[in-house]
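Record passed on underneath.
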Amino acid sequence: MNESVEKAIDSLWNEELLFLKTVASYDSTLGNEREVQLFIEEYLKDMGLQTDSFDVDTDKVSKYRNYGQPEWGYKDRPVVVGTRKSEGDGKSLILQAHIDVVDAGPESHWEGHAYTPRIKDGRMYGRGVLDMKGGLAANIFALKALEAAGVSLGGDVQIQTVIEEEVTGNGALALLEAGYTADGALIPEPTQHRILTSQVGVIYLRVTVKGAGAHVERAEQAQNAVMKAYKVIEALEGYREHINGQEKHPAFKSHPHPLNVNVGKMKGGDWTSSVPVECVFEARVGCYPGTDPKDIQKEVKSWLLKASEEDEWLRENPPEIEFFGFNAHGFEMDTGSELYETMAASHRRVKGSDVENLSFTATTDVRAFDEFGIPVTCYGPTGGDMHAPNEYMDLESLKDTTKAIAYFMMDWCNSRKD
């Protein structure tokens, strides 16, 4: 049976590469996910799956603890699910991937165009190829290969594609809230063929610093908002060192710097020879599993306001601090669970070695499944330059991931429910 499955994956390989090239050609950044989601839904229909798609309803998902606060609407930005029904008595499974990607940044930093995927030296390059449209291709073609090989599954399988994994996680919550649940779930994020066993929580914040503007010839009488913002950023750097200097969570003991703080966006000033009157920056802060992100919000705000009191201007004109996007809790997986053992065995069958565990210093949508009590993990391909110019995926690792997911489906869906 293994041989027939692998032959099917080999025979479908060119089709899988074409599918990945196609979905990676869509610029599916925040707010632009509709077109690729329509393509995916039609693709799943052509496979004979029962499909559903709908926009996120914030009234329904806002009750969950992992709900992230959006500053935008959800009209015409659907989540998609395709279901292959089974008449057996095996465990059901969700294979989920997020379709949203981060901005490609300046095109001058790319060798080629970010949304024109290209293959070179066994790699495919393009924004979203690694994070994580390649994982979606592995999900779909693992299922197609099993069917081509004549393998029957005893449990239902769902192929889910969601939005906003990169900013709120509300897309995953929307499908689960709508009843698209299962006995287990797998997200093929690019884990370098490791099993994700823990991840940090994440919050986003926006800081607005006000100055006193003037023409540059009177700069000494003004207050430069950009320069004052740097004082607040220095305080945020101090907070980063503070939290990483504390006792580490057991899952991250071996990591030298598990709680990353990043200033990712900044805007200040309107004219080169005018003293900026306002500067706004956005940052991301990590926290350990078991910590309430809302407590971290309070701690960060208190830290920055206290540090601002050391500056005469900021003491009288404190920065405005608001939170949006991620309110993401950390996650820990039971490595003695059936889901873990099944994935580990699938990895062993493909790679011929024991799998490594991954304590991830960022966040994924596994936390949404955890909130619903569904066993879940991430396991996916290798590559590089994720969230950076010239993002790429190692194509041989994509084929191995497709094989591992196929074996995982066979074992999980053909094991009987407790």
Q: What stands out?
A: The radius of gyration is 23 Å. The mean pLDDT is 96.
